[in-house]
Fold these 2 entries.
Entry 1:
Amino acid sequence: MTASPAPTGPAVEIRDLRMRYGDRDVLRGVELEIQRGECLALLGPNGAGKTTTIEVLEGFRHRSDGHVRVLGEDPATASEAWRARLGIVIQQWRDHGRFRPLELLEHLRRFYDDPRGAAETLELVGLGDQATQPAGKLSGGQRRRLDVAMAILGRPDLLLLDEPTGGFDPAARHDFHELLRRLVSEEEVTVLLTTHDLAEAERLADRIAILVDGRVVRDATAGELAASLGREAEVRWRDERGRHAVRTEDPNRFVRELPIDVEDLEVRRATLEDVYLRTVREDEVTA
Amino acid sequence: MSGALGAGVDRARLELRMLLRSPRELWAQILGMVVVVVVAGRLADQAAPGGSVPMAWYVVSGFVAASLFFAGMLNVPQMVVAERDDGTVLRMRTLRGGLTAYLVGKLLFCAAVTVATVVGTLIAGTLATGMPLPSTVGDVAVLAWVVLLGFTAVTLLGAAIGTVLPNAREGMMYALLPAGVLFAISGVMFPVTAMPAAVQAVADAFPLKWMAQGIRAALLPDAALARQGTDGWQLPVVAAVLAAWCAVGALLAPLMLRRMARRESGSRLSARREAAEQKAAVVGR
């Protein structure tokens, strides 16, 4: 039995993280901190360095430079006992395809001090009906749920989820969000997830960080991010000349001044998507 | 540590259960024994050249050695590559003592399959050819230690080889070629005396020849010694060469498995997968 050290300091601490492959800089000074019990979504275009960042935190990849602490330890030198406190979901897992989920979880329980029950964990991720079906025969979404089951089996302190809901149907996605929220609120698990689904990030994350070209260019709550575009909104309508969409700082006045016979009038506040797209484009230009 | 060992035993048990559950894989294991019955059965009446020992008995004894050897040099590397590429090795790395459990589980699983194969081949061979099973304590003991040392050597070597293969598909070719050459020059089915000295020296350096010779010592009557062209069965040499290869394997295998596991990550898995898919697409075109 190795008790977890008392939780002090942030769960994840990244300062000036740099990663260089050959003469290509993939990470160029990432700064990020995740407090214990916090859920942070890492957004960014493909190739921005999200997966590399997560792999450094997992200890699967050694950084070129910078300061990294995960649960108080340096992942590059941390022990196996440290890694047992992480729950890791990567996109590529197809392991143990011939094992049945129930027997696989029963087996993996042996590696933890205080694991969840195998059947209980399968129920948690909604795989109760697939407990005895070979893992290799599960659908893409079911397989990912099995990965999540393996990740939470050992009651980890930190979950590192690289696009955990890829291949999920809407219902499975909803259930997964419920599960994650429960883990964060009831068990105070710290979560870092990457996703391309902005609605998912908005719904789940306490904080959103946007990674562009190897740097964190925004780091704020979803609300703060949306507010950063000011009161700007998009007004859409249709009239005899066709469809229109206009961005304006003062949608109230703009709408009041529209002719009376417009149809399909719609006012959209700036969404996370707008912030995201603008951020990514701006930073790709200046980078 | 004991936790990792226990988990390794558990893995071996699960893998055996899965083998028994899968009719196709089970048949692949049994196929070798069927071949023994057919081939050896056809030769049952022919005496081997230059002696009174039936040719068929050589075939049975040779099959025991060959199945040991190929299980280690082909199946094991293929297993290692497949489980590296599907992420099993990476998963085990995320667990406390996971890699130790993985190694222990693999060794025990392979050992169990090997014992079943040897016993099955012997029984099938005896039924087909009338070859007596080893009956003296001495013969059984020789069989046991030759199989144990031979299995350990080739399994560990096979695991080490598996860690450097690019992918499962190509890996088989890389592993099959040297194994096939070695098989051809080692006189597995029948002792070879008419090889160029240089070729003989190569065969002498590798475990296969000595595994075959040790197993013949245990299974065949001493009358077979006449064909051997040597003074006695050279059991001390058999033991020395096999033990040496065990030592090499015991040194290499854990080292290289750990090195391979250390280099694994999610993006490495996908890079390798993409490369394999591209290659498959080119071949398929």
Entry 2:
Amino acid sequence: MANTLESPKAKPPLPQRLQNAQQQAADWMQDSQFWTSVFRPGSIFRKGYTDSPRNRSYVIMNSVLYHLHPVKVKRHAVKVSYTLCLGGLSFFLFILLTITGIFLMFFYRPTDTAAWADIESLHTQVAFGLLVRNMHRWAAHLMVITVFLHMARVFYHGAYKAPREFNWVVGVMLLQLTLLLAFTGYLLPWDQLALWAVTVGTNMMGFTPVFGEQVRFVLLGGQQIGAETLLRWYVLHVLMLPFVIVIFMAIHFWRVRKDGGISGPL
Amino acid sequence: MGGPAGNTHRLLTVVKSGSIQDVKASPGDKVHVWPHLLAAEFTAALFITAFTLVFSLFINAPLLELANHNETPNPSKAPWYFLGLQELLTMFDPMIAGVTIPGVALILLAFAPYIDRNTSLRPEDRKFAISIQTIHLMFWAVLVIIGSFFRGQGFNFTYPWDTGLHGIFHL
């Protein structure tokens, strides 16, 4: 005590000074115009964030990512035992598939001469190539399962009833789009499994009356699967079907809120 | 005319709130999305990522030989989610198995909310709807399982232990 009184300007120990400097730098950054313009009120990165009801609301309202959600939901809606998270998991798997899919696109050419060899070298020459391809493949299978289970869950809860009838219809579309995305991706490795699974699948398509043969011809780009098919299915798989499914997902999620949030407890 | 204390107004009656104000929304039992829902969603996302990652570390996606039009593998199977349709093709005419049955199933499924006029959500009031949907879902599930595990050479019936895991999953 006496020591401090005699030399009031004595420096605090080094760790303390470092911590102070760090705090000052953080304050300076968080006070800057740049920082406050990036992080809107309610962001946990803003200075003075506290866990208050007001900030809890701002977190959702002021975030482009989270404002898909309302600020508040019915208490039963957050019970995992009600939804089993199946819709959310389907959406998240879609994001995972988009990320891993973009990675795969860097190493893949959709031609009958290059496709198979590109995947072969992806396995052996590219860092994490095999792992990312595995994740893409298994996540795709998993998404078909979660979408199917989500459909079953919604049915058993009677959640398709008024006012949510139309959102159920959109959901059935999403199920079909998911199957189409999985099926178009199946051809891309251009191995024996891909070629013959798609041959069996597209032969069934030909049985559709009136326009079956025409649809099959347009999808295959010819009478049988070949280089044209690979290019068409590649474009369908990486661009057209994702584009369409994102639109349907947007409508699906928007309607969940417009129809009054997820359905009530039984 | 003032009252005992000189007041000019008197409280005459008590009215119910509904007659003078219109309460449109009741607060209900609600919770904040942050943190209650976001935390659950984040956990689910982490869980499914971890599951996919670990699964992918141990099991590789199949890559067979280069596609060859002159060499038909036996059996040739569609992707597993279409094996129900392929299974139906062994039983019915292609027009019925490939078009009529899946087409009708899909249309009925899409229009279920307009067909089912029952407004109750309680399972005990929905015995018919639940039964018919369970039969429908099990129908496809059983066909997919038969197609995946019980079909060998020439798409003939076989047992999964005869085919082996490697034959089934192309590992």
